[in-house]
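Sample intake sheet
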Amino acid sequence: MKTRLLTLVLLAAVFLLCQAPKVQARPEFARFTGNPCSACHISPQGGGPLKPEGEQFRKSLKDLDIPMDPKLRVSTRLRLLHFALYLLHIPFGVAWAGLFLYTFGPALGKRGPVLPAAVYFRQFVYGAAVVLVTGPLLVVTRMKMVPGLFTTRFGFLLLIKITAVLALLVSTVSLLWHIKVVLARRYKRLVKSLDSAAYLELTPEDLLLFTGREKRRALVAVDGKVYDVTDRNLWRGGIHPGGHHAGRDLTDAFGGAPHGREVFERVTPVGRVIAPDKPGRKGPMSWAVRLGVAACVVILVVVGLWRW
């Protein structure tokens, strides 16, 4: 998994390095304000004498006491700092938002969120931490190039992006807390009952906790009965040949299997599957899934508008 994350970061870095901006006089202002160079310069290509609008724009920068030289140039040191922060911010942002969509996106049409592997938690934390540190620093370096946060197209989009990032942070923290704390405690209670030879009554959501991964017990359901397949050779790691996963109801999975339900006659059932208390009710964290997915979409739209 670490190799995949490193590959993602490297590909994002290469993609950013290969993007060459158009050759214009000061492309930063045109890109950040949403106006072409000809909005301020007499020449359509930019540079040279300014129009009255351009002079007014320069005067507004001076009135706002923005620390820039008289020719509105940005120092090489600041550019290098901005570029270094950009190379960190974008790949880790892609890893955070992309992993969120990959992990929790499929849960939109289900009762509860998909449980991510333990390795994903570190990637969520690393991605969010880097984005939250580099984001404000990027704002500081970029906002020195524009009149203000509330007076430009760039500033308006930035406010939207900041709101979406905070929403994604709330969603991520809520989901990880629910999975690592609430569901972990419930899993421990169920395992304790299982070890005491109690006959379990599990909802489909409870069954999802027994995936067989990361030292968890592996349970499967067939025809309403729950079976413990943790110590079975063909269920190592919670995966059965043919792509069947523990923690699922396999009643309908025998169509293409080389055997039938008779294989479970040799396994003693440890419980049964029961219907949820409130059929049709979404999972307790469904709001966080919807909020996070919506935030990811908004972030992608904002970044797309910036590039255009």
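Comment: Residues 16-25, 63-72 have pLDDT under 50 and may be disordered. The beta strands are 200-202, 219-222, 225-228, 239-240, 244-245, 269-273.
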